[in-house]
Amino acid sequence: MQQSPFSGLSSIGSALGAPATGGTSSIGSIGSISSPLSPSNVTEEDGKSFSSMLAGAMGQVNQSMDVSKQMTDGLLSGRLENIHEMTIAGAKSEVMMKLTTQITGKLSQATTQLFQMQI
Known about the structure:
The protein is mainly α. The protein has helices at residues 10-15, 44-77, 83-116. The longest helix has 34 residues, at 44-77. It starts with 9 loop residues before the first helix and ends with a helix.
């Protein structure tokens, strides 16, 4: 019979005031853990809605970058009258691009972890 690697730890409970039970635990079973997002619950519609949300967000980032570029071009050509609006558009574009970069990195890490999971 193979001995459990934790059999030497049964005396720890008696040292703490708990009766030693010969290596068996008096803790009941925890039960199974289930997730509401198991692969069987995810539908094709959920994937399409995520895809459309992601495409819409990327479109907004692209639009913000275009507005910033147009305002910068307007400043260089002398057509822009309000430098403050150009500065705000540039800052907004920068923040949106940094956020997009962070989200892309997190999605990449999550994908890598999913592929490394052993089933």
